[in-house]
Specification:
With about 300 residues, the chain is of the alpha/beta class. The chain contains twelve helices and twelve strands.
Length: about 300
């Protein structure tokens, strides 16, 4: 089949389609805006390629052979599919769109990026669907290129270099505990900070050391990390119902009346959050619309 396709000129198939519609070389030439001799030459090449006369003289013009009748509908469908494939992309209309977007995100980016965008997204594109999936950072690039995810959100340290990216925001850490926590009535000293019971988020599971501990170690100090959890969602419930405190990204606790938030007594490096996508969807109108919608919602 591949060799056959290489030997045929696509323009010949367009001519054959016109001939099967008109049953007349002159009218087919007019339809194609070609000269009658040119179409006659192309018909001769088609006959040679298919090994069949295709069109025979008849009392009222030309009549198709059985082989030509077999070709008529498959040829018409194939040319329509090719025309659709090479046609310019149509403007994206979110009100009529029915896409399903698959987005790689964890609880932090779900809460800080997807949640603010969701209400307006549902209003603008009500027939679209969003599937939030979790992928290890090391798998994001492969899944994006394979089409398993359309977008992903990762920190700059985690983001694969071979994906397109857009900076969403720069995040910083604050110290949070339950409302009325006796140790957070004011900003604690570094010594007081170290004596508090701390909780930590360890996405890989079970870790008791983070960027805060690295910053403390540079000062020759340690803190008491009593609890390690895999998700920020559970951490919020822990902080609101116990005397544990935690260094958390500020956007997670902004406006949470159940928590007391103060500035920490030491500088802890924050992080940049990026939106990532593969080259294969970079110019897709629907994907461009989705990226701009999410970015404008932050």
């Amino acid at each position: 089949m591949t060799n056959s396709l290489r030997r045929v000129d696509l323009n010949l198939l367009v001519t054959l389609d016109a001939l099967l519609i008109e049953h007349n070389v002159t009218r087919a030439a007019e339809r194609l805006h070609l000269s009658q001799p040119t179409v006659s030459l192309q018909l001769a090449r088609l006959r040679e390629f298919f090994g069949d006369p295709l069109l025979l003289p008849g009392p009222r013009g030309m009549r198709p052979t059985a082989r030509a009748d077999e070709l008529r509908e498959p040829l018409r469908q194939a040319l329509a599919a090719l025309e659709h494939a090479v046609a310019p992309s149509q403007p994206f209309d979110p009100a009529q769109a029915r896409q399903t977007w698959r987005i790689g995100a964890f609880d932090y980016s779900e809460f800080t990026i997807l949640l603010p965008a969701l209400t307006a997204l549902r209003a603008a594109a009500p027939a679209t669907r969003v599937a939030v999936v979790q992928s290890a950072p090391s798998q994001v690039a492969r899944k994006a290129e394979q089409g398993d995810i359309d977008l992903a959100f990762l920190t700059g340290a985690e983001a694969p270099s071979d994906l397109r990216r857009r900076l969403m925001f720069t995040e910083r850490y604050v110290l949070a505990g339950r409302a009325g926590h006796p140790g957070l009535k004011r900003r604690p000293t570094l010594a007081q900070f170290c004596k508090l019971g701390h909780a930590i988020v360890s996405p890989d599971g079970g870790g008791f050391h983070g960027v805060t501990d690295t910053a403390l170690a540079e000062r020759g100090m340690t803190r008491q990390v009593a609890l390690s959890v895999p998700h920020f969602l559970f951490l919020g419930a822990v902080l609101a119902s116990t005397d544990l405190v935690a260094m958390v990204p500020s956007r997670l606790v902004r406006g949470n009346a159940a928590l007391q938030v103060v500035e920490p007594p030491l500088d802890v490096p924050g992080f940049e959050m990026f939106m990532l996508w593969p080259e294969r969807v970079h110019r897709d109108p629907g994907h461009q619309w989705l990226r701009e919608h999410i970015a404008s919602s932050i």
